[in-house]
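>> received
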Amino acid sequence: MKFKILFLLLSTQVFASISNITTFEADFIQVITDDKKKELHYNGHLLASKPQNAKWIYTTPIKKIIYINRYQATVVEPEIEQVIKRKISSNFDFFKIIEKAEKIDKNLYIAKYDSTSFTLEVKNDTLISISYLDQFENSVEITFSNHKQNQKIDKSLFIPKYPLDFDIIRD
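>> returned
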């Protein structure tokens, strides 16, 4: 009985550590695999801060910056001098996904959010990867490295920046 109580306390403590992430910064590799096993690889850097701010900076194979706040996503594509501003209808929230995560194994969690099931891998209280099936049934895996959790991130970094002469498309 003491072992069960100790196990419950330890697992609750580990879960609390990932659910209490307030900021997250890391390099990432995103691999999207379609039903024909064709893979697309993207590299970049992610900044995220509660309540719902994220900045995905894609560096290869194309340069692109995606700013996400509570109600809007802004995609800046310098190579084609274009900005897309889109209202977020599904209210995708990086931190809600983490908060909803339930431990299923030593380092694995599952989170169900907005009809999508996310698998999170955690090692030593640090988020290592997120994987899921997107709306087109593509397998998406995002692997993080050079992590920084719960460190101060300047809020101005989440304000979309782009040249005024870029074409702006509003969805």
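>> The two ends are 57 Å apart (CA to CA).
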